[in-house]
């Protein structure tokens, strides 16, 4: 995800590009190929995903501790409309309902995350373990397995216990490595008999850059140029430690796998004949996915990051590079700590070389890369400002992973598209198009030889979208957040995704077109249901409005009129008393 400042820079560049070089720039020179009809390998796993803070709600129930997101979202002005995840989709109370939806979709797997402060309220295992939290995840896991849905678990999807943030500065502090390892070990101990797919972190890029560099995400720190690199360094060490813990203590008995979920946009050179653009695009991907993947697969940061950040740090008068370094022992400890790679991917950028000034005051992750990001104004962008639909970028990213990291086993952990809050349209034709084209590019990548074993649509439900609150909806299922019960309604994409799953791919053009037509037809029933519910809640709101003047009048009587009358009476009595006393004298 791009921070807002970068997005505006992007927009300016788009504009400049449109004005200055619309004629001489050939957008079609990337041959993106046609649709490929065919099926996925047998046993390919289809799923959908969620994360704890985004869906569970129950933020203060049953002994859960506070997370940095609980605290951050309660601060005014941090989240769109000051939304919070306090109740979100109420997933904590809806295990059966939600597993029912997954069953209906015929999912093979469900990806969710475990809330660290729900299990360990302070984050420190020796303080206290919350058995009610353990019980919740036990129920979820058991219910999934009873329904033949494989659980894929993320240990850290951004909700650090607040206590660890306050006491140690969160991921800036190396002590997080041990605390996280203890939490992970507890999860292996309690759930590992049933969980075979573990992921240590979800999208650590976001944790580092948005949490500690730009401050758009919790904990909201703006430690530009240094914070993100330090945090990433500790996260990579924490990941490696947890992998070794599993490897030495649990693997033989539990026979599971431990990976990490990394996000990455694809970066395509603006001019594929220009060496500088080619290198800038490569840098874009190395600073994104490569920042974490290269140490984990090869033991150290990408050379280009070491070169660029090192050189700039010297120019800026720093004694050493702002990018920390690993010792030889650390390198060999970290290298190879990945049984499978989770890939989260949503969008693509065009990249061109752009030198940024090297002033110390402007040092940042973004200026370190010396590049500019552009988008093609013709790319569809139905929802989030940063999310353009560019399916061919997905195939390129997957091939990049194959060639850079020795063709690892891949699970796509996130892929999907959003729409804006006010859109109560369940006939999400654009999402059908997005899933159709992106999964097709993934199929092409598999034909290219990329070892993709599973795909996770993001997300099962509409949910709390971090700093965007509920204003962006990624769900296959629509959630009515205005209703206390948070009812779910299937969007048309549910029907379409279901067909891809049951055919394990795309049989032929006629059939796939039929799926689409039928999906859009059936969604009109759900649309009617939702419209009826909307009418009902609008009527309820009108009643409340009629009722409101009465209530507010009563409030005025009790809160303003009564105290004023009392005070006046006391004053008048005092004046009257004084008057009487004077007369007596
Ligand atoms: C990646 C994050 O992991 C996920 O939580 C979020 O919903 C998506 N990006 C969409 O922004």
Task: Describe the structure using short key phrases.
binds 1-deoxynojirimycin; eight-stranded parallel β-barrel; 18 helices; alpha/beta; three-stranded mixed β-sheet; disordered N terminus
Question: How are the SSEs placed, and which strands pair?
Answer:
Layout: H1 4-21, E1 38-39, E2 45-49, H2 52-55, H3 68-74, H4 95-105, E3 109-113, H5 116-119, H6 131-146, E4 150-156, H7 162-168, H8 176-191, E5 197-202, H9 204-212, H10 227-254, E6 257-263, E7 266-269, H11 275-298, H12 303-315, H13 328-334, E8 341-344, E9 348-353, H14 365-368, E10 371-374, H15 391-404, E11 410-415, E12 419-420, H16 429-448, E13 452-457, E14 472-473, E15 477-479, E16 488-490, H17 492-503, E17 505-506, H18 509-584
Parallel strand pairs: 2-3, 2-13, 3-4, 4-5, 5-6, 6-8, 7-9, 8-11, 11-13
Antiparallel strand pairs: 1-17, 9-10, 12-14, 15-16
Helix pairs in contact: 8-10, 9-10, 15-16, 16-17, 17-18
The structure holds 1-deoxynojirimycin.
Signal peptide: 1-22
Organism: Champsocephalus esox (pike icefish)
GO molecular function: beta-glucosidase activity; galactosylceramidase activity; glucosylceramidase activity
What does this structure look like?
Mean pLDDT is 90; it is low at 1-31 and 549-562. Helix 8 (176-191) runs parallel beside helix 10 (227-254) and helix 15 packs parallel to helix 16 (429-448). The protein is built from 18 helices and 17 strands. Strands 2-3-4-5-6-8-11-13 form an 8-stranded parallel barrel, surrounded by 5 helices. The chain is of the alpha/beta class and 585 residues long. It has helices spanning 4-21, 52-55, 68-74, 95-105, 116-119, 131-146, 162-168, 176-191, 204-212, 227-254, 275-298, 303-315, 328-334, 365-368, 391-404, 429-448, 492-503, 509-584, and strands at 38-39, 45-49, 109-113, 150-156, 197-202, 257-263, 266-269, 341-344, 348-353, 371-374, 410-415, 419-420, 452-457, 472-473, 477-479, 488-490, 505-506. Bound molecules: 1-deoxynojirimycin. Residues 1, 51, 54, 202-203, 263, 344, 414, 465, 474 line the site of 1-deoxynojirimycin (NOJ).
């Amino acid at each position: 995800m791009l921070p807002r400042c970068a997005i505006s820079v992007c927009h300016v560049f788009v504009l400049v590009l449109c004005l200055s070089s619309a004629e001489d720039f050939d957008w079609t020179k990337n041959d993106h190929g046609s649709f490929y009809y065919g099926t996925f390998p047998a046993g390919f796993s289809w799923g959908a995903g969620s994360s704890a803070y985004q869906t569970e709600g129950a933020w203060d129930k049953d002994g859960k501790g506070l997370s940095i997101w609980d605290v951050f979202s309660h601060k005014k002005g941090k989240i769109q409309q000051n939304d919070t995840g306090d109740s979100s989709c109420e997933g904590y109370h809806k295990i059966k309902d939600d597993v029912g939806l997954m069953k209906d979709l015929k999912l093979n797997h469900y990806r969710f995350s475990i809330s660290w402060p729900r299990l360990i309220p302070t984050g420190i295992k020796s303080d206290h373990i919350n058995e009610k939290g353990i019980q919740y995840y036990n129920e979820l896991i058991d219910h999934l397995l009873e329904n033949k849905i494989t659980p894929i678990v993320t240990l850290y999807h951004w909700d650090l216990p607040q206590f660890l943030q306050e006491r140690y500065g969160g991921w800036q502090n190396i002590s997080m490595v041990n605390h996280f390892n203890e939490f992970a070990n507890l999860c292996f101990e309690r759930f590992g008999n049933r969980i075979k797919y573990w992921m240590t972190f979800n999208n650590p890029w976001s944790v580092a850059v948005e949490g500690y560099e730009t401050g758009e995400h919790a904990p909201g720190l703006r430690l530009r140029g240094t914070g993100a690199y330090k945090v990433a360094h500790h996260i990579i060490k924490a990941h490696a430690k947890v992998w070794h813990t599993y490897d030495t203590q649990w693997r033989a008995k539990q026979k599971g796998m431990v990976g990490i979920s990394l996000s990455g946009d694809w970066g395509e050179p603006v001019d594929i004949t220009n060496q500088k653009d080619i290198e800038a695009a490569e840098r874009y991907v190395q600073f994104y996915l490569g920042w974490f993947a290269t140490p984990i697969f090869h033991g150290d940061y990408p050379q280009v990051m070491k070169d660029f950040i090192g050189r700039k740090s010297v120019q800026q008068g720093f004694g050493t590079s702002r990018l920390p370094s690993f010792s030889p022992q650390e390198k060999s400890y970290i290298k190879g700590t990945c049984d499978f790679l989770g890939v989260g991917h949503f969008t693509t950028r065009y990249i061109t070389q752009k030198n940024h000034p090297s002033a110390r005051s402007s040092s940042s992750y973004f200026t370190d890369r010396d590049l500019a990001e552009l988008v093609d104004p013709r790319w569809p962008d139905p929802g989030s400002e940063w999310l353009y639909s560019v399916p061919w970028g997905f195939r390129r990213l997957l091939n990049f992973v194959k060639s850079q990291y020795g063709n690892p086993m891949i699970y796509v952990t996130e892929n999907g598209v959003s729409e804006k809050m006010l859109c109560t349209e369940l006939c999400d034709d654009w999402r059908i198009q997005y899933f159709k084209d992106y999964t097709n590019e993934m199929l092409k990548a598999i034909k290219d030889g990329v070892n993709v074993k599973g795909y996770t649509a993001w997300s099962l439900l509409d949910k709390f979208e971090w700093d965007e609150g509920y204003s962006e909806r990624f769900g296959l299922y629509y959630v009515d957040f205005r209703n206390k019960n948070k009812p779910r309604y299937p969007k048309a994409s549910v029907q379409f995704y279901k067909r891809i799953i049951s055919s394990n791919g795309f049989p032929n053009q006629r059939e796939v077109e039929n799926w689409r037509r039928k999906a859009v037809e059936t969604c009109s029933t759900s649309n009617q249901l939702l419209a009826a519910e909307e009418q009902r809640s609008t009527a309820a709101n009108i009643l409340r409005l009629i009722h409101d003047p009465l209530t507010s009048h009563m409030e005025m009587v009790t809160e303003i009129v009564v105290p004023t009358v009392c005070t006046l009476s006391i004053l008048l009595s005092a004046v009257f008393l004084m008057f009487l006393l004077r007369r007596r004298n």
